[in-house]
Amino acid sequence: MPDQRLSARAARKIALAAQGFADPRPSGRVDARQLRRAIERIGLLQLDSVNVFSRTHYMPLFSRLGPYPRELLDRMAAHTDGRVRRELFEYWAHEASLVPLRLQPQLRWRMARADDDAWGGVRRIAREHPQLVADVLALVQEQGPVRAADTGAERAKRRAGEMWNWHEGKVALEYLFWSGQVTAARRINFERRYDLPERVIPAEILARPTPSVEEAQRELVRVAARAHGVATEPDLGDYFRLPRAESKLRVAELVEAGELEPVTVEGWGAPAYLWPAARRPRRVNARALLSPFDSLIWFRPRTERIFGFRYRIEIYTPAPRRIHGYYVLPFLLGDALVARVDLKSDRQAGVLRVQGAYAEPAPEAGPAADPEHVAAELAQELDAVAGWLGLDGVAVAGRGDLASPLAAAVRATQ
Question: What are phi and psi of 110, to 5 degrees?
Answer without folding.
Answer: -70, -40
